[in-house]
Amino acid sequence: MQNSNSLKQEFFKKWMMGLQIYTTTNENMTVTERKTAIKLSADIALASSRNCATRWSRAVIARSSVDNRSCFVANGVLGRGLCERVKQISNLKITRSSWSSGKIVKRSRRVWRRRRRRNKCMAAVTIARRLVQKRTKVLRGLVPGGEFMDEISLIEETLDYMSALQAQVDVMRFLATAYNPSSSS
After folding, report:
1. What distance lies between CA 156 and its chain's CA centroid?
2. In this model, does residue 73 exceed pLDDT 90?
């Protein structure tokens, strides 16, 4: 895990680089285009500040390579070779385990139902398990690339993603107060 200050500095440097690359192609931007430029360059800078070492950062970069302008910004911040390599890694199809086969799932559900009927005291465990499954599903939707991770990787990636997002918020908050010093008093 990177030092917080070095992560913030790396993010800020790459974010400014991404904004410069994005704005050189369009001088007269609308408010919506500026918002898109800020968000796109912030996402790419955040992912690239982790040097594509995490799954979420690779997922963000792969997602950013959808249209030409964002791909142009990603290539400028990351370098064309790294961006292409991340896209190739992300395009690999991840196959699901044999547990997704219909027969195994149906059979395991039948066994589970029999056990549940036999043991009524397991109700609390069942409720807790469902709650964990629901929250895990929500977490998979929040973390970029989370839908392809097992639970342990998901937790590790979520912690890393949260620390990166905190650094992003700190840098943006600092910039907002630097440009508008009257609001901080």
Report:
1. 12
2. no
